[in-house]
Structure formats: structure tokens, C-alpha cells
Amino acid sequence: MKLQEFLKKKMTSYAKHIKEKRLASGARILVAPFSSHRHVSLAGSILGGTLFAGSGELAKVHAAMLLEGTIKRHKKELQIALDAIGASLLFSAGSDRLYFSGHVRITHLEEFLTLIAEALSEPAFPARELKILKSRERAALALEAQDTHVQAEINLTKLLFKRGHPNFTEETAASLQNLEKLDVKTLRALHEKILDGSSLILSASGDIVPMRLFSLTEKVFRKLSTQDLSLPHFTKATPGFARRVAMPIKEKASIDYELGIATGIGNKHPDYAPLLLGIQIFGVPGFSGRLMSTVREVEGLTYAAYSYLSGFRHTTDGYIRIWSSFAPGLFSKGRTAILREIQKIAREGVTAEEVRRHRERFEASFRVRLSSSGAFARAAHDCIADNKPLSYLDTFPERILTLSAPEVNRALRKYLIPSKLSESAAGSVT
Which residues form the Peptidase M16 C-terminal domain (predicted)? Predict the structure, then answer.
């Protein structure tokens, strides 16, 4: 079958099913009708997150406190109101946006949207609930300090990025210091700083008529204050010299090991798609990647070895990340095996057969990921949040299906530079 015939047969347009309206405030509302037994999934956000807070910990606590009570309802009343309509609602912080997501029966959509708008526009930040949340968060950070996987990842981002970059992660000790300093006044100041109804993106998918959602959102969110908010400036990273860091954590049965290199490109760069496929071929989770088929299956040195592209956005340069975990007695051999496979794929490249198999794997996985209303709502939201047209949901997997081995190998040689890879290990290391 010719490639174009294959594309025509395999691909279904997602973008054409999504309707969009821009409200008078500038907010963007998206609706994708989706058969879901009279259920609606929502994914939304406003500008916010770590870049505006200056601390990942502050951004995280701020997001969590939005469900701890509003000016009109204390925490228990807010939870009862959500439970009464069978809705779920979660707020979370990203690098540059404050996210919310949830689902509700279509008959209670207006009440649900009203509660979301209330949490955004009238948070109370009660001191009593903040005290309790801070206590829980101290316990979570104590566990994080002993998590070898998290510590290896944090230290890798510190090797690759400068403070202020979206992919820089503050160390656990700094998170604890920031947690102790924050108070109600700090939270209120941050909320006032970021609340901007013009930056609102709301995406819904389920059994809903688009015009109904457009009408409801115009009514419910019209009171959200607006301001001229823009992303803080940061400097892109570039591949530097290789650096290493090892964090000893006592009484651990394993060592988490990560390697990485900054790429200096975002996810709209022409090299992103071939690099993504190349890194998938190298270490996709599962047993079809090279790392798992050699370092685990043949040599038996680890339980898992994966590679990823991480931290890529339209305006944010990402990095290549390779992770594995080893018993202390196998760490030296495991590290040597990982480095050997990196050097091999960078030198020899991938085969046409590997590209063919992994193109189809990516396309199939992409379609499966969009097979629920929640995932569809999130995907549409993320396109707009990342300054991409909705057609990206169709054109990107189509682009993957057209990739050739020479394209993938050029990207791997350009960005996966063994001599410039930084390394981070945490656990029973010396």
C-alpha cells in the first residue's frame, strides 16, 4: 500500500470535530462532542504556575489551596456542593499555567462551571487549612528527599538548566524552605498577580452541544478580572560540557541513574518529530525499545531502561532524558551498557525497519490516547495553550508517519551527543 493511501485510510480528523469561541474577555472555549453517556470532561487553565510564583512549591500549594474554601463557602461546603452534583475537580500547577480538570453529568454543568469560577475568582486561602496543608506537604517532602528517582531527576535538570528556566527543578531542601516561608498573604498576592480571565482556556468534551457551553461560559466567567499578563522571559539552554553529580541516600537497595542533554529547540522545530521518533526507538517504555531489548533482556542488568523527550513546548526548549535503575553491585556494568548503547545509536543510527515499526506504533498509541472524553478535552486544550492550531492533532501524527530513517538519524546525530551528556545518580552511590 502506498504511503498516501495508508495515511488516508488510517487517519481520522480530530480538529474538525472541535468547535471554538473566543469570549469578549479574550478567553478561548473549545467543545468536542463525544459520546459519553451524558457525561462531560473539562480541561482548563489560566496563566500561572512556577514561572510566575518563582517557586515550584509555592505554585503547588497555591493550586491545592483553591479547593480549601472560597469567600462564599468553606472547605466542607465546597466539597458537599461538588459531591451533590457528582463532580470531580482538581487544580494543579505547571511551569507556566494553573490547570484545572474535572468531569460532571451534563445536567449539572452550569453548577459545576459556577464552582470553578468561584474557586478562581473568590478563593479564601483560610489560615487553618493552610496550616494543615503545610503539615501534609512537609511529610511529602520528607519522602521526596528519600526518593532516588525524584532526586536523580531534580539534579539532572539543575545540570542542564539555569534557575528561572521552566525545566529547572528546585531541590527538595529549597522547596521545604519556600514552604516554611509562605503564608496567606503570599498566596493572595500570587493569586492577584496571575488572575487573568483573558488567559483562560476551557476545553470540554462529551455529550454537549457547543452553543450551550459557549452560552454558559460567557455567563459564568464574565466576572473574572482581566489584565495584560505575559510569560516571564527566560534564556534558552544550549548543550554544554558533560557534568556529573552523585547523591548518596543511605539504606537504598538501588541506584537511579539519569543522563540528559539540552537540545535548545521547542516542539515546533522541524527536528522535533524525527528526534522524538529516534528517542522512542532507543528507549520507549515496554519491550520494543533498544535499551530494554539489550540492557534488560540480553544482559539482565536492570528492570527498566527508558529514554524520553522532556520539557518541550512551543516556547520552551526541552531535553533528551535517559533513565534506568540498578542494584548497587551492577551499577558500574549498567552504566557502561547504557553509554555503549547511546554511542551505538548515535554512531550507527536506526534502521528503516525500526522506523517503519515505530511510526505505526506512535500513530496507534496517539489514537488510543484520544479515545476518552477526558483525553480529548486535554489534547485540544494543550494545543491552544502551546500556541498550536487545532489541526496539529491531525498533522503531527501524519508527519510522524512520513518520517524516514535518514531524517531520524540526522536528528539523532545532531542532538544526541554522547560526549556532552550529563549524568545524575542517586541512591547507594559513593
Answer: 182-361
- Evaluate if pTM is beyond 0.90: yes
Q: What CA dihedral angle connects 261, 266, 270 and 276, to 10 degrees?
A: 50
pLDDT the model gives residue 240: 85
Q: Are residues 301 and 177 in the same domain?
A: no
User: 391: buried, middle or exposed (CB in 10 Å: 19+, 13-18, 0-12)?
Assistant: middle
Q: What's the CA gap between 23 and 117, in Å, rounded?
A: 15
Distance separating alpha carbons of residues 110 and 96, to the nearest angstrom:
28
Does residue 150 fall inside a structural domain? Answer: yes
Apex 297 CA angle, 367 and 405, nearest 5: 50
The reply to whether 343 and 396 lie within a common domain is yes
In 3D space, the residue among 157, 95, 92, 133 whose CA is nearest the CA of residue 321 turns out to be: 157
Q: For residue 8, is pLDDT > 70?
A: no
Q: What is the mean pLDDT of residues 60-83?
A: 98
Cβ-based neighbour number of residue 264 at 10 Å = 14
Q: Find out whether 416 and 346 touch, Cβ atoms under 8 Å.
A: yes
Q: Are 210 and 232 in contact (CB under 8 A)?
A: no
Residue 25 has pLDDT above 60, yes or no: yes
Q: What is the pLDDT of residue 11?
A: 47
Where would I find the H helices in 241-351?
A: 272-283, 290-291, 331-348
CATH number for the domain that contains residue 75: 3.30.830.10
Of the chain, the percentage scoring pLDDT greater than 70 comes to: 97
At 46, which amino acid appears?
I
Half-sphere exposure of residue 255: CA atoms within 13 angstroms, side-chain side? 23
| Nearest partner of 14 among 389, 402, 403, 362, judged by Cα | 389
Cell of 64: 491545592
130 and 266, same domain (yes or no): no
pLDDT digits (tens, 9 = 90+) for 339-368: 999 999 999 999 999 999 999 999 999 999
Question: Could you give the CA distance from residue 415 to residue 417 in angstroms, rounded to a whole number?
Answer: 6
Selection from 136, 146, 126 nearest residue 179 by Cα: 136
Grid cell at residue 378: 486535554
Q: Are residues 126 and 271 in the same domain?
A: no
> What is the band of 380 on the pLDDT scale with cuts at 50, 70, 90?
very high
